[in-house]
Amino acid sequence: FRGKKILFVNVASKCGFTPQYDDLEKLYEEKKEKLAIIGFPANDFAGQEPGTNEEIASFCRLNYGVTFPMAEKISVLGEGKHPIYKWLTDKSLNGWNSAEPKWNFHKYLVSETGELLAVFPSTTKPGSEEIVSRLR
Question: Which residue of the set 4, 15, 22, 118 is catalytic?
Answer without folding.
Answer: 15
